[in-house]
Structure formats: structure tokens, C-alpha cells
Design goal:
The chain has about 240 residues and is α+β, with helices and mostly antiparallel strands. The protein folds into two domains: about 120 residues, Immunoglobulin-like; about 55 residues, no CATH class. It has two helices and nine strands, in the order βββββββββαα. A five-stranded mixed beta sheet has the order 2-9-8-4-6, with no helix packed on it. A four-stranded antiparallel beta sheet has the order 1-3-7-5, with no helix packed on it. The longest helix is centred in the last third of the chain and has 63 residues. One of its GO terms (biological process) is endoplasmic reticulum membrane organization. Belongs to the VAMP-associated protein (VAP) (TC 9.B.17) family. It holds the Pfam family Motile_Sperm.
Length: about 240
């Protein structure tokens, strides 16, 4: 039988095309149309059963009706050379009794025996590359963005407003830091001046006390009285 056709079922499409992207599952579907006047049982097989999930993989198609079959390919870790796939699918179909249901289907129904017609339709698998950028191109774009920022030139893929707003934010932060430093410097200078002033006042007060004490001592020995001063030293009396 040629691919895509059988005496019991019409199968579309004639090949299974899976969008291929590393580390991602992908699915495609096929339609099985019963073009006869009696019930038809089908079974879907593949050369690589661990790689694909078929739902449903067996069933009964009523006369003149269509059954949709979904085939899911597991995520791939490596891409085959030139995206060429050697996997194939086989759709087997046989005449079934009227009123037959899925639970009535057995593997023996598809055994080839003399006088029994078992149609088989082979479908090949093809991979269709997706249009999403590869990780290498994304890394390249990120690298060019970083280099352009280091050189002071914004990347053309980013809006200018982003760079203007970030620059303005940096200027505001710099202005705030400068203002804070200036304020702290002024407070420090004020504290230093206050400290120097206190030191001068202490030195002046100490000098004044020393002068007063000397005047009191001289007055006591010379008999000169200083009514306006109070002597802080006690002179022993002479006998």
C-alpha cells in the first residue's frame, strides 16, 4: 500500500511532521477516515516506541467518520545530523464487526492469515526546525549589549529611554551623596571650631586664676589689700 492510503482508511497527512526544538516535547496529529460502510478497527505502531506516545493507539472508526490520533514526541537532548529522522509509523486496519468498541480489539485481529485482509500504511517522520533563536545567538546578543554598555553606547535593541532614566537615577544618587558629604563636612568643621573655642576659654580662665593668685600672694606679703579680689591661697601667719 502507498503511504497515506489504504483500502479501509484514508490517512492524513501522509507523513508526520514534528516541530523540532531541543529539550522540548512536540506533537502532531493524523486523521483516520473510514471510507467504507462497515466498522474498521485500527492499530498504530512505531519503530521507536520509547520516543513517541500515541493516543489513541488502537480504536474503532465508524462508517463515514473520522478519528483524530495525536502523536507526541519526547524531548530530545541532541539533534540528529541534518535533522534527518529514521523513525517510521505503521497504521494497521481491519474490518470489524458492527457495533464493535475499543475494548473488543485484540492483537490477534491484526495477524496476517490466509483469506484475511490487513491493510498497512507506513508514514515517515520528519523534523521541522523552529524559528526560535538558538541559545548561542541569545548569548551573542547579551554579550554585545554588555560590550556596548561598557563602551558607553547603548544597544540599538533597547529603547533610549531606558538608558536616559538609568543615567538620571545615577545623577540623582550622586547629587544626594555629594550633599550628604558636604553636610557632614560642615558639621565636622563646626565641631572642631567649637572644641577650639572651649580650649581657648579654658586656657584664658586658667591664666586669669593664676594672675589672681599671684596678686593675692604679693598683697599678703607687701601689705597691699585687694578688696575687689578673693585670694584662693592661704598664707601661713608669721610669729
Amino acid at each position: 500500500m502507498s503511504a497515506g492510503s489504504a483500502s479501509f482508511l484514508e490517512i492524513q497527512p501522509s507523513e508526520l511532521a514534528f516541530p523540532f526544538e531541543l529539550m522540548k516535547q512536540s506533537s502532531c496529529s493524523m486523521q483516520l477516515t473510514n471510507k467504507t460502510d462497515h466498522y474498521v478497527a485500527f492499530k498504530v505502531k512505531t519503530t521507536n516506541p520509547k520516543q513517541y506516545c500515541v493516543r489513541p493507539n488502537i480504536g474503532v472508526v465508524l462508517p463515514g467518520s473520522t478519528c483524530d490520533v495525536t502523536v507526541t514526541m519526547q524531548a530530545q537532548r541532541e539533534a540528529p545530523p541534518d535533522l534527518q529522522c529514521k523513525d517510521k509509523f505503521l497504521v494497521q486496519s481491519v474490518a470489524a464487526e458492527n457495533g464493535a468498541e475499543t475494548q473488543d480489539i485484540s492483537a490477534a485481529m491484526f495477524n496476517k492469515e490466509p483469506g484475511k485482509v490487513v491493510d498497512e500504511c507506513k508514514l515517515r517522520v520528519i523534523y521541522v526546525p523552529t524559528s526560535s533563536p538558538s541559545p548561542f545567538s541569545e548569548e551573542s546578543e547579551q554579550g554585545s549589549s554588555a560590550r556596548s554598555l561598557e563602551n558607553g553606547t547603548p544597544n540599538s535593541t533597547l529603547p533610549q529611554s531606558v538608558f536616559r532614566s538609568s543615567g538620571e537615577a545615577s545623577k540623582e544618587k550622586s547629587s544626594e551623596a555629594t550633599s550628604m558629604i558636604s553636610k557632614l563636612t560642615e558639621e565636622k568643621m563646626s565641631a572642631v571650631q567649637q572644641n577650639q573655642k572651649l580650649r581657648q576659654e579654658l586656657v584664658s580662665a586658667s591664666t586669669t586664676v593664676t594672675v589672681l593668685n599671684r596678686c593675692c600672694i604679693l598683697g599678703c606679703y607687701s601689705g597691699i589689700s585687694f578688696p575687689s579680689f578673693t585670694c584662693f591661697l592661704t598664707i601661713p601667719s608669721q610669729r
